[in-house]
Amino acid sequence: MRQVIGKRTLDLDAADFAALRAPYERLVVDLGTGDGKHVLAVARAHPDTLVVGVDASPDAMRKTAFRAAQKPARGGTPNAMFVWASAEQLPPELDGIDELHALMPWGSLLRTLTLTEQSNALLSVGERCRTGATFLITLNLHAWRPPVPEVGDAPEPTPDSARTDLAVEYEKAGWHLDDVHYADDAELAAYGTSWTKRLGSTRDELAVLTLRWTINRGTDGSTRRAPSTSR
User: Fold this and answer.
1) Beta carbons within 10 angstroms of residue 222's beta carbon
2) CA distance 95 to 78
3) What is the DSSP string of 83-133?
4) 91 phi and psi, to 5 degrees?
5) pLDDT, tens only, 190-211
6) Is 0.70 topped by the overall pTM?
7) In a 3-state reduction of DSSP, which class is residue 165?
8) Which distant-in-sequence residues (6+ apart) come within 8 Å of 16 by Cβ?
């Protein structure tokens, strides 16, 4: 595992990460974390939780990672850490995840989360999660207005299409849709992401679709379908 701390990158083995994780009750992983500000917000709100930001491009998160690594008296956040890795191929040490976030995904991660042929990647991510783990996804719908290359000619997701097309593919990977709705301004502000602020400053109205999923697993680790409760 490659941990980013400012300009430095440290190689951590399983024992190193286990020692970092040991003091905390829960593990939250933010996929495609970008500059990592959402990780800091979650970590500061939940000091009993280790929050790990993962991104395939380390440079954007280096500044935030450096801040997090400082002593608490100097504004550090000891329960926040940053990892240089692909969201689709998480380091093996990131296992037993309690909660996943993917806020305003872009590039390959956007394809993974919205195109139905990517269910194998969703299964791989789900295999790292505990039974009952949750997955929060927010989609920037302006990626379809007009479409960016990552979404191709796929139609813009809506609550209705999420309950049908997306839900079918996610269920194959063990993920059950609990809720889907258009995010309001208060919800978006609470996430504390730079993407939300940047996009909101350039548009009269910011269109974002929020999806919340739960992983369903049997005691043998196999995925199983749960009764539908989405509205």
Assistant:
1) 9
2) 20
3) EES-TTS--TT--SEEEEEEES--HHHHHHHHSGGGHHHHHHHHTTEEEEE
4) -60, 145
5) 887 776 655 554 555 789 999 9
6) yes
7) helix
8) 1
CA gyration radius, the chain: 17
- Degrees, nearest 5: CA angle 221-80-41: 105
How much is the average pLDDT of 135-160? 94
Inter-axis angle of helices 107-114 and 119-126, to 10 degrees? 100
Q: What are phi and psi of 97, to 5 degrees?
A: -75, 135
Q: What are phi and psi of 2, to 5 degrees?
A: -105, 105
Residue at 152: amino acid letter: G
Between the alpha carbon of residue 170 and those of residues 1, 165, 173, 211, the distances in Å are 27, 9, 5, 12
Q: Are strands 208-215 and 129-140 parallel, antiparallel or unpaired?
A: antiparallel
| Pair of tokens at residue 231 | 């509205």
Is 119:145 a contact under the CB 8 Å cutoff? no
